[in-house]
Write a structure and sequence with these properties.
This protein has 3 helices and 19 strands. It has 274 residues and is mainly beta. The mean pLDDT is 95.
Length: 274
């Protein structure tokens, strides 16, 4: 009988930038506290991510107690960015969603544009409870999400990563493995589950908080990006395409929606409720 536990918690204050791994995190209805409340947009207001800009992986965002962030990147001085006052909002696009946001100050825009080598703006989600609904195909009325791709949290397991790395080792690009978990940018990582057990989960309880498993997570080119160097390869997408294809999606991990709030702590027991 396996007894899964919470192995790690990850928070990414700015979408597509490197994040941090605190020992605990507060769960809010729209995700972990401070997770992806900031985002980059281009001059016309469309989301900017690692998909076309792998260099974003080299910039790090550290959350501050007041909701602000501290930015760092090679060759640039550290920059502290405060939460902008929501006196004026502006509309931006994240995938198919149009969301009202508040812009950071000009210094933050300049810092990130300098790092990326192209013009971007940094924006903040001031009202996650109202601004962006979860995909209605997989959501319940009133559920919202921050700037995560589509759902409040993403869960992955160490056993499934080990299984994937074993498959990579048997393939044409075995020299690219084993891959670390940071390729998949999960919020919660579990230890002690069987490989791919998460495929069958419908509800899980971590510590005192229950989560609904909304849908499998289809993976994109970001997973092929070395998060330390920003270099790209073929894996894991080549192996996922062979072994973990569901329709037109390549699957690793599950999307979660919290059914309550509270604190997650590394070492919390995990119960498969359904």
């Amino acid at each position: 009988m396996l007894n899964p536990v919470l192995h790690a918690v990850h928070v990414y204050p700015v979408k597509s930038l490197a994040g941090c791994a605190p020992g605990e995190a507060e769960v809010e209805p729209w995700g972990l506290s401070g997770d992806r409340r900031w985002m980059l947009v281009d001059p016309v207001g469309k989301v900017v991510t690692q998909r076309p800009h792998p260099r974003l992986a080299l910039a790090r965002a550290e959350p501050l107690p007041d909701g602000g962030i501290r930015l760092s990147a090679p060759g640039l001085e550290t920059l502290t960015v405060g939460v902008p006052q929501p006196t004026v909002t502006t509309g931006v696009e994240i995938w198919k969603d149009k969301v009202e946001v508040v812009e950071a100050d000009a210094g933050a825009h300049a810092w990130l544009s300098d790092h990326l080598g192209t013009e971007v703006r940094l924006v903040h989600l001031d009202e996650p409870a109202h601004r962006r609904p979860v995909d209605p195909q997989f959501a319940r009325p009133g559920e919202t999400v921050s700037f995560a791709d589509g759902y409040p949290l993403l869960v992955a397991t160490l056993a499934s990563l080990d299984a994937l790395n074993s498959l990579i080792a048997q393939g044409d690009h075995s020299d690219e493995g084993p891959l670390p978990m940071n390729r998949f940018r999960p919020n919660v990582v579990l230890d002690g589950a069987a490989p791919w057990a998460e495929d069958d989960w419908k509800r899980i309880k971590i510590g005192e908080i229950t989560f609904r498993v909304a849908k499998q997570c289809g993976r994109c080119v970001v997973t092929t990006t070395d998060q330390r160097t920003a270099e790209r390869g073929k894996e894991p997408l080549r192996t996922l395409a062979r072994h973990r294809r569901v329709g037109d999606r390549l699957i690793f991990g599950q999307n979660l929606v919290p059914e309550g709030t509270g604190t997650l702590r590394v070492g919390d027991p995990v119960e498969i409720v359904e």
